Fold this protein.
Amino acid sequence: MLIFTLRRFNLFIFTMLLLTILSFSLSFLFPGDQLINLTGQINASPEQLAILADEYQQQSGLLSQYFSYLNHLFHGEMGYSMASQLPIATEVLNRLPATIELTSVALLVAMFFGIPIGFCAAIYHRKLPDNLILAIAMIGYSIPVFWLGILAILVFSIQLGWFPSAGQISLLFEIPHVTGLQLIDILLSDSPYKWQAFQDATRHLILPVIVVALAPATIFMRLARTAMLEVLDTHYIKAANAKGLTFSQIIYRHAMRNAVIKVIRDVGLQFANLITIAMVTEVIFSWPGIGRWLIESIYQRDYTAIQGGLIVLSTFIFIVHIIIDFVYAALNPLAREPRHGKR
Amino acid sequence: MAYPKLTYYKYFALLIMVLSGCDSNESLSLSKKSIIYCSEGPPESFNPQTVSSGTTIDATSNQLYNRLIEFNPTDNSIIPAIAKSWHVTRDGKMITFYLRKDVQFHHTSYFMPTRALNADDVLFSFNRMLDENHEYHPISGGKYPFFQNSQLVNLINSVEKINEHTVRFQLSHSDSSFLATIGGDSAVILSKEYAEQLIALNAMQEIDMLPIGTGPFKFKQYSAGSFIRYEPHPDYWRGMSELKQLVFDITPRDTGRLTKLLAGECDVIAYPIAHKKIAQHPNLTLESVTAFNVGYFGFNTSKEPFNNPLVRKALSYAINKPAILEAVYTGQAEIANGLIPNSSWAYDATIPSQVYSITKAKELLVQAGYSNGFSMDLWAMPVQRAYNPDAVTMAKLIQADLQKIGVKVDIVSHYEWTTFLRKISEGEHQSVLLGWSADHPDPDNFFSTLLSCSSAITGSNITFWCNEKFDQLIQRALQTNNINKRKVYYSKAIKLINEEFPLIPIAHSKRYQARANNVNGSLLRAIGGIDFNGVTKN
């Protein structure tokens, strides 16, 4: 496990380095002054700019410029947003939790529904339920997110009035910002309307979560189906069958756990896809997350925010990737074996 | 053995519990007794003295502050506010205000007033704007657009404190629009005690960002670009609002506001679209008021051929106003007959409306010596304004209209807005599509600003038309406080405009607002946007 951890850590460090190089080079590629693109200080006086140039070692070579940029990053200094003139770090900290909340709930929902349905399809292989599930999965995967989001608002917010169309919670509830995760903040708060606020936040969460979860859920369906089919085809299942276990015993005791492990391996891969869908969904549902902020920054040509948002979002995706790798390794001892080198 | 189906049932049961869950009466009252207003943009400041944008004034002026006097929402006449009464001397140069004694400032987490409002607060509020040497004058940029535009600095000689609750304004000359100006959205009364506290804390700029006023609501929270939260002012002199909260949900996209209204997330929205859809909805009401504005087609009377009144008159016959109203304002405006809208007290219903007649226009052109027509440029404003939502389309319609009488029009619309305004005020244009939104309901705000000789010099009269007779009429109207006499003068002034046509008034646009039916009270104002004082919800 130690080698496995070291491997992941190594990979993390190098990927992050590559990312920072990319983000650093963006400040040269964007139009305008490189130093201003990097710091976001559009209103700085010449004296302030001189101090900044010194801080970022503009007079030295490219390498030391890059290292001073890294140094700033390590201290959480990502410059100031060109649009709002607030520190990028503050902006990110205010918004990332909302995205974490949306994507993690969506991921759980997608797994919770996708995997069992996929198993179902495998159990009824080549029968009506299988075909039906495959068809639904195909449709679910093909629907464009923005269209689905708007349709959901039209039907469930405007026509039926069941769910709100925008935001994280009704503005009437004053929930102090502690963790940034709305549901947890509500539970931590001492508002007299706590229960109502919790209900309201849940209602706000439902439509965006469904929209974000649909595409990954359909992928999990297909992955789970394939995994289950593979497992059902293995010798140990045949052996269990020969021992005279009932079908449900075989499925629950032997097949399911092994199939789930196979699916979990791919959850990490789906997460990047999920974030992309979440960014679009955040715009449609005015969800105050980092995705919406990043898309607005692109509109406003807020270069510092684009660089900062890129780094934070990629880091987030990468960390989730690694966590899922660890979960997979914990569940499946075979994965911990060093794949390269000695065997 | 546990079956997964059971876990599903448990999950759904939990979900349904969370969704439909136990509503206590107390928790229900929060949304039932609060109003969410979806506004179109964020405020620039929380002090209407320092801005001219309608969005900021909507968000602050009527909710947070009071003025000495204000306007009756139905007929725009002047009614008492902080001043319970006032007296104007016969020569009109000295105006004394007698203040109410029980007007309390907001108690907030950042300021605890120790006294009620008195004359010092009034002096502080006006001197901040008028006196360039006042310590608060340069705070927030030192710009007081409304006061500076209405030339109050030249009009008010001094503001004196007679006693704790009496204030006297000395004017340099009589001006009957003075009271209307003082009742305008920008003439709010701030707290001097708060200002002194901020000096002690060395945080003077906070006076405009963390507001303290005497209005029906007090400031609670502002999340930049996202929302403003107000709470009722418990000691409000007109009685505490029944609302628990007033939230301005800043929703710049008009489709977003409409969705939120239909989904019940907003109780009231600004500038609604899809009027038919709202009007048909059983739970929603669409309201409109003809705003105090005018969109016009102005001529540069200092340039050929528009120095000839016959040419201007000819063009006025050739313009098909109903067609413009349909195409540009989608019918959401009134045809302008004179300069002022019919909700003004000075409106004269007997003035005939201009007829649309190509033959008459052609005749007049021949008389003026342009039987073969001529070519001209027409500057169309590059931005949307309430008084003219689409100047370029309007310009194209006018172009087509004038082609019928042999006049060739070149449309100029490529300048950026500030450049456009500067070039216009320097007289580079031959003709222009522009408009005016009034700052207060006094009719003089239209006449003097748009057509007087003095404003031709300052640049707000972009026709450069200077008519002695007209100037005399509007001066006389200002010198008297007799409203009937003023009506006669203004009526004559409008007739003079309709003979000379330095500009052709085209339309007075309407301002719309949509709300849920459970919101009661009058909200929409022809002047100064919205007012949530006295609004309730059931």
The radius of gyration of chain B is 26 Å. Residues 29-64+215-283+517-537 of chain B form a domain with the D-Maltodextrin-Binding Protein; domain 2 fold (CATH 3.40.190.10). The longest helix of chain B spans residues 483-500. Chain B has three domains: 29-64+215-283+517-537, 66-192, 293-511.
